[in-house]
Amino acid sequence: METHTTNISELPTDHTPSSVDLPEHAIRSSSNHVIDEQIYQPVKQNVNFNPNVNVRMATDSYVLKDTNKMIILATLVFILFNEPLIRNYIMNILVVIFGGMLKTPTGTSSKVGTIFYGVTYALCIYIVTLMIDIPSISF
Fold first, then answer.
1. Domain ranges of the chain
2. Whole-structure pTM over 0.70, yes or no?
3. 3-state DSSP helix/strand/coil % of the chain, to nearest 5
4. CA angle, corner 76, sides to 58 and 117, nearest 5?
5. CA 84, 90, 94, 95 torsion: positive or negative?
């Protein structure tokens, strides 16, 4: 143990403060309080909690509807059909099936070809929706 330390009980005490002289004690002990009417006094309210409250988790806050899932699926198929390589491949298949009227002599698709391509896109989406169970897809 160190020799230059002092225990707290060895310290000299000159005056012991009493709590009777404090102003807070005088205010609490007086019975004639004057409350200012302009100061807001909070009203005590009893709060009761219902034990049968359904608690929703944060993951259940947004559920995709079937129409939103269908829009996402149609967007993905559209992006797939919009790729030039896939577009040319599908147009070549359509030219073989329906004839040369779907393409112009320069190799681009004609107006009739664009209509057939749109119908093929719609048919593809229809087949995909028949094969995939949309309500069971979860994101």
1. 66-133
2. no
3. 55, 0, 45
4. 155
5. positive
